[in-house]
Amino acid sequence: MCGIFFSCSQKEHEVPSEKLLDDLRKRGPDSVGTRSRTAPLERTITQLESKEQTCNLKFVSTVLSLRGECIIGQPLEDSKSGSLLCWNGEAWRISNDIVQGNDAEAVFSLLLNAAQSCNVNASDGLSSYDQSKQNILKTIATITGPYAFIFFDAQSDRVFYGRDALGRRSLLVKSYGVGSLGISSVSDATDTHGWMEVEADGIHMLDLRASLVSSSHGANRTTHVPWAADLKPDLPYHLTYPFPTLNKDDSNIHNQILTLNSPAVDQLYQRLQSSLAIRMFKIPIPPSKEAAPARVAIMFSGGLDCTLLAAIIHSILPKWQEIDLLNVAFENPRVVQAAAAANARNPPAANSAYALCPDRITGLSSHAELLKTLPERTWRFVSINVPYAETQAHRSNTISLIHPHNTEMDLSIACALYFTARGSGFITDTSTSLDIPYTTPARVLLSGLGADELFGGYTRHNTAFDRRGYKGLADELELDFNRLGKRNLGRDDRVISHWGKEVRYPYLDEDLVSWALSIPMWEKCGFGQVSNAEETDSPTLEPGKKVLRLLAWRLGLRVAAAEKKRAIQFGARTAKMEAGKTKGTQNLS
């Protein structure tokens, strides 16, 4: 995980404010680097009388080092050409080959080769300038994994920037005025106005040589190259979209039943195991005085998705490696007051505000099930209790981090992720029952995000099926998947990474996502399926995410397999902390 920043200005170099630089350092505490460049601007009719114009470029990168044998500082720089790369991501594979060492160096090397390998005799008739652009775009399309990047091709004075097709890493953009641009992992808290999310719908190219002025108004020097599933004649350039369209075929769906013996259950296990294996490979020991601290922590509500991840990780990591389970619960004044009014004669204990949180109850239940089912490992349950006063103390910082998202729902979700990622709580000594303060040293966090969107886990999926059958369900699943980057992932990345942690999403692995989109709906959820009386070995489970529930059941997680879906803001009780009729869609005041 890294923090990246770029600015382009006709005046002096635009540098990040102290607050923005501090937020970037928090994302990447291991290294910080800056580079400056200048690039010529094309002269125009209105500039003929003026002196030669230049564009001042500033690049900043901070690094959280999780790949390779040592810390590799950024921006990466090619001494020969002057090209630069600011990389915030994890390239798990390039052209289907697993990246073994530092992925930023591997990506930079390929981009440099792409920029330089221009065949002027190419049959497609492209100029050297255009062909290098096409080569760079093709190289980007070969990368598998989450990323946001800024690549300066010094030979052609172009800046490429963008996010992966799912939008798993944050990237924001802002115009400082005509000819001036800023790009950053997070917005500037001292001036949030104007920052917008870079959409995860393609890659952008800023041509620094292009004219700033046209005959009528300021010309746009940025070209957008979209992800496209099919080659379109009207698009001179495009990136091959890495995912198939959602399989909506329901021709034989009424005759199908998803059971413990269905091939989809085995296929899910294989793909989840592969996804987790590559995400767990050679995670370095975090800076700590402990001999063998936890290298991985799971954002752990005790629900189906995260508990299933824990069970599969157990089959991958050595048994001596400890795993932290981060479980957050909030003091919600509205809930506390309602409980006190309902039990006036027997007021609840001071700590019941946390003990009675739904996610604390399910978290402890699933933790107990892991201890019983997989006792060979240390499963460290970390209780993260957040008093209302502490929530309020961090409110303004959380609002700044989620920007440009700005609704009550965004804030309530972000608060839960913010304090979970901080990882400070307590663990209970089983021998003395005493609570001991504890902060996880793990810098890699696992999240179950994506399972609901792919496998039909939300209540709205059930509602869509009840109202419009399989067509309604398919449309809702397609909508949820397509808006993941816009609605969730950029916001979540900004909040979680603030603590120098990297969140990884096993359910959003490209191979797993492609498989989930391609299989028929009846192989991932059980809406409308009638139990077969002769199928005695399959349990009766919730229809949402049924394939996940069956896999959990098969792995011995009977309690977790039956857990109902609950949104994080309600499970941790960050929603509606004050009395009133505030709606989640309302903008923050």
UniProtKB/TrEMBL annotation:
PROSITE patterns: GATASE_TYPE_2. It comes from the Eukaryota. InterPro entries: Asn_synthase, Asn_synthetase_domain, GATase_2_dom, Ntn_hydrolases_N, Rossmann-like_a/b/a_fold. Residues 2-217 form the Glutamine amidotransferase type-2 domain. Transmembrane segments: none annotated. Keywords: Amino-acid biosynthesis, Asparagine biosynthesis, Glutamine amidotransferase. This is Glutamine amidotransferase type-2 domain-containing protein. The lineage of its organism: Eukaryota, Fungi, Dikarya, Ascomycota, Pezizomycotina.
